[in-house]
């Protein structure tokens, strides 16, 4: 049996923390934990002044469960909970239902022996439970003080010996942690806490594939239980009730009216705790009544539940869109929906991050600040004449400011001719082209015009950070496709068999960037040909992001999928003047392809932004119209920066990157460090003035990678990378 020491304690559940251990599904693991005060109150005479609350509720882990993937569930059987000899029971003057009654904290150190707690000579039977247990959320780290859909600080006393906890998996390996044990805790945590105690938990952890359940559940011998959180108890109670209703109807197969009546008659709604940053409530339903309710529907299938094996069995065909499930949506509040978007680590957002305590080692390194999260438009001159044509558009006034939603007809015709010559495909400017607010705007319009709730959407990992977020925002079902970019040469390395299976399984949309962002690899002609033919065969819509298709370095051919003889009709290609031309600030994008999709995109743009900024549209006149040799010189400049940065990378042991073939990105792999990836990136920004984007923005599994945009001043970029790796050496394991 694997044992995890409490030296692996941490204060947040995070996709970015390196695992303390790996286990196989069905394996048993024993966690050693601190109490919630990190042992600070155990010595006699210590007070809350001796407690470092920055560590939160220390949880031990995380444990990586091999094979666990987003959409699965962990099945965690709580085999045993053991305690240390002394626990802490206290009343806080500012927390819980008794806030304001006590002017000072009251602290009791209570001894636990032979299954009883000694409270001033009164013997109180223990009721062991786990306060904090959870997996890593998909977005930003969440404090171990906070309960959410990934579990966390639920403080539910039904998480006890003999129970089985089901937690949804949000990141590969799930990354399970636990802590905050209680020898006993009443529902509510009325005064402040339970009997906080250090201890050991023995858990048997299994994986149930593709359950489609996005919230925690508990099962014991007699009950099914849902646990939910909210800013208020009302919100938590409604959410727990709706989650149970969803489980009863969609997973256990009860009719909706029967499920509602069952909840009215026997659904016990209870408070778990009221002291954490978010409150938790639970609803408990007896298994025997569920079984009897099932008998009201003779012959109905029961794939979701078998009492004999105490498992949730969800057949693949049972996983349908939330819209098809009678309008019970995966997100229960608008705040919850937007919490999942997680923009804190998106390029340019770093300054908005909350301050956190960092393990800063050594002195700061002097040098000019370099922000590799996006290109430096000041480092390279924009396309000649770009400002002048913009100024002409301003002078033109209203006819340029208020163009039709697709774009000004004369500019549409000009752009269509130029892209057509570049990509080798005819484009009707009246029906097959739209100008957008940047290529980001084009992506949003294209996805919003193609994704219905529950639609399966395939995308590459790693690929552009917004792709996954947009699929999730539009309530699509995410189908990641692996790209083995590190091993492949002369091609991108996409797993075409996996992609075809996704098409066979009903993926309605596939989106990818070429050249790839963040790796910079280019898809080979053979890969493009197979993607085109498979999409046509299975009727899958394609969105191809070709933003950097003009910035391709010598050595590999570039193939436009839209020009393939076997290309499907339902394809949208996205391009635009951007970092290659140092025109990012104008926010210009263009999408072309299937006329019906373009029409939908126009309707969506009409209610989102009306049009690509009217004055800015004039700058399209310089696109594909640069002075002779200008673009080749620009590409050569970037190639020199790439080559010199690769020399720096190749000179550091354990660091690697695939040389960029197109665009201005490098996806850098680093060795295992003594701090998490996100802490490392914050540390580098603090100690060296260098900003990079964490690899997890491009796929949750990239815990040892970061991306840089090397469209920078050459000398500053090279010096910044050297400073970054100097800092890295201070944290190497």
Instruction: Kindly estimate the percentage of residues that lie in beta strands according to DSSP.
Output: 15-25%
- Oligomerization state: single chain
Number of strands: 36
Helical stretch count? 16
Poorly predicted runs are 298-330
Distance between the termini: 25 Å
Question: Can you tag this structure with a few keywords?
Answer:
16 helices; 7-stranded mixed β-sheet; alpha+beta; globular; single chain; 733 residues
Layout of secondary structure:
Layout: E1 2-4, E2 9-10, E3 12-13, E4 21-23, E5 27-33, E6 59-65, E7 73-91, E8 106-113, E9 116-119, E10 122-125, E11 129-134, E12 142-143, E13 147-148, E14 151-153, E15 164-168, E16 176-182, E17 196-208, E18 217-219, E19 223-230, H1 233-251, H2 256-266, E20 268-273, E21 279-286, H3 287-294, E22 305-306, E23 311-312, H4 334-339, E24 370-371, H5 386-396, H6 398-401, H7 409-423, E25 433-437, H8 438-448, E26 456-461, H9 465-473, E27 477-482, H10 496-504, E28 509-513, H11 525-538, E29 541-545, E30 571-575, E31 588-593, H12 595-608, H13 614-617, H14 630-650, E32 656-657, E33 665-669, H15 677-688, E34 690-691, E35 693-694, E36 705-709, H16 714-729
Parallel strand pairs: 1-5, 4-6, 24-34, 26-27, 26-28, 28-29, 29-30
Antiparallel strand pairs: 2-6, 3-12, 5-17, 6-16, 7-8, 7-15, 7-17, 8-9, 9-10, 11-14, 11-16, 13-14, 15-18, 16-17, 18-19, 19-21, 20-21, 22-23, 25-31, 30-31, 32-33, 33-36, 35-36
